[in-house]
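User: Okay, second chain of the day. Same drill as before: sequence in, structure tokens out.
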Amino acid sequence: MPEAILVEPEEVLAPLVPSPHPFVPAREPCRESASRANSPPGSAATRRAANVPLGASVGATPDGRRAGEPIAEGVSPVHGCDTGGPTKVLRSLSRLPTIKSIAQLLNLRLSPGSLESEEGLNRLVALLKGFRSLKLWHVQFNTVSTEALLEAQKHPEKYRDLVVRVAGYSALFVTLDRATQDDIIRRTSYNLN
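Assistant: Same drill. Structure tokens below.
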């Protein structure tokens, strides 16, 4: 059997991303501080909240994803494949020329216990400062435990006010379809401790 060659995702994607929509005219930034000048409108790795329905029609992929399972949302790593922690995710994304595209959302799920202490909050601040210094565009967090999400599936009447970040928007967890709930539960939960 041939030996597998491992490469980082950005090594594969970077050559593909530089000009995702060469036929779309450039646009002016919508605000003075915009860093996305000349971004084509609507270009993205995947549309927000489309990873679950899009995955339903995609066959199995070499990373072990089975046919019909959700694909990664936006520029977020595939669930379970991001084993180097949130800083590595940010550094990997910073190597992609995503500045040329809009709607490049990144979902990160943080362990709620990570934020219970002053030290944990300081680590979150450091992570966000790193995010800004890498000139990344968009990140959103969920800080709900897997246990709480699973309980909300079992007893939705007890969790009517549980809000989660989905993909570009927030929603009441119990109002989401089961496939989207399962997708949120499968996101890697990072511990900042």
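Confidence is low (pLDDT under 50) at residues 19-47.

User: Thanks, on to the next one.
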